[in-house]
Amino acid sequence: MHKHQLVDASQLKYLCQISLAPPNFIRTWPIYYVNGYKFHTEDKSQGMKTFNSGICVIGTGEGGIVDDYYGILKDVIELVYP
Prior knowledge:
Blueprint lengths: L8 H11 L7 E3 L1 E4 L2 E4 L1 H4 L8 E7 L5 E7 L3 E3 L4
Antiparallel strand pairs: 1-6, 2-3, 4-5
């Protein structure tokens, strides 16, 4: 019987780095661009003619059931790890 390693050396180094706290600064953004789409946070959308803070994420729930999850974009936070 062979034992399988759960994590190889390169993954272990990466996991150790992300287990540390991020640097002392965190950036927040009112707008996020991804795959040609632009999203605003809920606060940024206030008073605008268009509402771009609604988001949908496809995820896998309990039992492997794939479902859509909907929400409102409240914050866009950038964490930078070493």
